[in-house]
């Protein structure tokens, strides 16, 4: 359990984060890419940009101390990243910040929803359950799973800007009674022991400084017999950290996605066992022999789009789309309609996409190592 002194420190940090988010983004929720960019406080945005970019060096120049510093400062790292990247995510991907598998002819957002349904079904989420979504983003999966299952879903997120937006979207969709979004650190989950019927995480717990730390907290708050389902970002068994090319790709994934340290599948599975979970199912859904690979929208290959609607998502990642977005941001930044650092944010997100595609093509990385783990019935 967390001590009173620690709780006070955490509360002070949350208050500081909320104040920073309001200073940067404003108190009112705005929709639309341009409306969000143009309303930022430029000075505060610049602080977020410098905070994030100063945590990184070129891969060949980094050492273990740099990596350790990011792990120690993971909350600042992740918060700075999402304060910068959230608007771009919504603009390019929608309200569910994750990847998925695709069947031939399947529309992008339908595939995204099916990916969420697959997790909910395998985790055993049902009507009336009290469920926790760890690292909930702006709440897209929480809303979808609440509608799909009838469960009550609480989204936990350490980024105040995303919590505000998730709450707004849930109210707009008529789901305020079935969802709740709270600011909190999933290394110190603000729930009592043995209090939740299920938990899930979708490409979120990779931001934790250790798998054992976050998995141990999830184990603590679940009721005995309850399950935790997860799509985890991992490096595959083919990854060799001592290989300079492999390290360059992993570093690109980390820097482009606000991740303190990428870890292998074996470490994920061992961490689950170490904290007491029984692993019921695990499989790498990125390596199922799919005709249409999960990363096709990042490639910007319009030939792989399944429907006309998918073109709108994929076109932003084409060379022409990247050029247009970058220069649009450059013009907005120059005339004062977007804060300084907007172009740099666009650049590191492009770098992220390139690293993810290269890592996938070389079978070094998966964003959907899927597992379902159960807290034993006899656990206390």
Summarize the topology:
Elements: H1 4-25, H2 33-38, H3 42-53, H4 64-72, H5 74-93, H6 108-123, E1 130-134, H7 140-149, E2 152-157, H8 160-172, E3 179-183, E4 196-202, H9 211-221, E5 222-235, H10 244-257, H11 265-275, E6 278-284, H12 296-299, H13 308-314, H14 319-334, H15 342-361, E7 365-374
Helix pairs in contact: 1-3, 3-5, 6-7, 9-11, 10-15, 14-15
**Number of strand segments:** 7
Topology as H/E string?
HHHHHHEHEHEEHEHHEHHHHE
Mean pLDDT: 93
Q: Strand order, biggest sheet?
A: 3-2-1-4-5-7-6
Largest sheet: 7 strands, mixed
Radius of gyration (Å)? 20 Å
Tally of contiguous helical segments: 15
Helix content range of the residues, please?
A: 40-55%
Strand content: 5-15%
Give the helix/strand class. Answer: alpha/beta
Shape: globular
Please describe what this structure looks like.
The protein has helices spanning 4-25, 33-38, 42-53, 64-72, 74-93, 108-123, 140-149, 160-172, 211-221, 244-257, 265-275, 296-299, 308-314, 319-334, 342-361; strands spanning 130-134, 152-157, 179-183, 196-202, 222-235, 278-284, 365-374. Strands 3-2-1-4-5-7-6 form a 7-stranded mixed beta sheet, with helices on both faces. The protein contains 15 helices and 7 strands. Helix 3 (42-53) crosses helix 5 (74-93), helix 9 runs parallel beside helix 11 (265-275) and helix 10 crosses helix 15 (342-361). It is globular.
């Amino acid at each position: 359990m967390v001590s009173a002194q620690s709780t006070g420190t955490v509360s002070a940090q949350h208050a500081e984060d909320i104040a920073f988010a309001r200073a940067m983004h404003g108190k009112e929720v705005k929709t639309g890419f341009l409306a969000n960019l143009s309303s930022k406080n430029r000075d505060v945005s610049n602080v977020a940009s410098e905070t994030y970019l100063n945590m990184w060096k070129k891969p060949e120049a980094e050492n273990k101390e740099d990596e350790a510093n990011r792990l120690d400062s993971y909350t600042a790292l992740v918060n700075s990243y999402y304060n910068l990247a959230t608007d771009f995510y919504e603009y390019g991907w929608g309200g569910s910040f994750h990847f998925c598998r695709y069947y031939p002819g399947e529309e992008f957002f339908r595939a995204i929803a099916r990916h969420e349904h697959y997790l909910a079904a395998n985790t055993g989420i049902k009507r009336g359950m009290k469920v926790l979504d760890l690292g909930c983003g702006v709440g897209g999966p929480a809303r979808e799973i609440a509608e799909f299952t009838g469960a009550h879903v609480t989204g936990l997120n350490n980024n105040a800007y995303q919590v505000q937006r998730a709450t707004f979207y849930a109210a707009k969709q008529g789901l305020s009674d079935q969802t709740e979004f709270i600011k909190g650190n999933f290394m110190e989950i603000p729930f009592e022991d043995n209090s939740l019927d299920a938990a899930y995480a979708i490409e979120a717990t990779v931001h934790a400084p250790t798998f054992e730390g976050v998995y141990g907290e999830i184990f603590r708050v679940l009721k005995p017999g309850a399950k935790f389902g997860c799509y985890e970002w991992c490096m595959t068994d083919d990854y060799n950290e001592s290989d300079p090319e492999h390290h360059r790709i992993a570093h690109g994934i980390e820097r482009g996605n606000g991740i303190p340290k990428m870890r292998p599948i074996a470490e994920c599975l061992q961490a689950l066992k170490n904290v007491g979970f029984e692993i019921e199912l695990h499989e790498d859904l990125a390596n199922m022999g799919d005709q249409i690979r999960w990363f096709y929208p990042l490639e910007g290959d319009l030939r792989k789009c399944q429907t006309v609607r998918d073109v709108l998502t994929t076109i932003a990642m084409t060379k022409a789309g990247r050029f247009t977005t970058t220069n649009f941001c450059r013009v907005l930044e120059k005339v004062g309609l977007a804060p300084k650092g907007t172009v740099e944010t666009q650049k590191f997100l492009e770098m992220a996409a390139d690293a993810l595609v290269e890592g996938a093509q070389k079978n070094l990385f998966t964003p959907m190592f899927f597992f379902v783990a159960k807290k034993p019935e006899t656990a206390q």
